[in-house]
Specification:
six-stranded mixed β-sheet; four-stranded antiparallel β-sheet; mainly beta
Length: 118
């Protein structure tokens, strides 16, 4: 059973920074492409950043240039450095592997709340 534990969220003023962490247990973390997702109130969950097993990264246009995803396979942990935060970044942030119709997501963790005040 895979367990995802996200942490690092909080309340920050616009322009501030946060660093999120996600510890993955119960799976061979290193063999999966992973990502950070977010869900704002009344909106669908969206993928904001991803990183492949070889370290190739990709970002949603809305966070490009401000967020940086990284991973530490030895620690089975994925990180999201968020700079120049905006009120529209307010959401619950989750990590998970990249999933398709053939590869389902792991069970979602509790997420970590990020609130950006203007």
């Amino acid at each position: 059973q895979v367990q995802l534990v996200e942490s690092g969220g909080g309340l920050v003023q616009a322009g501030g920074s946060l660093r999120l962490s996600c510890a993955v247990s119960g799976s061979i973390f290193a063999i999966y492409n992973t990502g950070w997702y977010r869900q704002a109130p009344g909106k669908q969950r969206e993928l904001v950043a991803s990183i492949t097993t070889s370290g190739t990264t990709n970002y949603a246009d809305s966070v490009k240039g401000r967020f940086t995803i990284s991973r530490d396979n030895a620690k089975s942990t994925v990180y999201l450095q968020m700079n120049s935060l905006k009120p529209e970044d307010t959401a619950v942030y989750y990590c998970n592997r990249l999933f398709t119709s053939q590869i389902p997501p792991w069970n979602w963790g509790q997420g970590t709340q990020v609130t950006v005040s203007s």
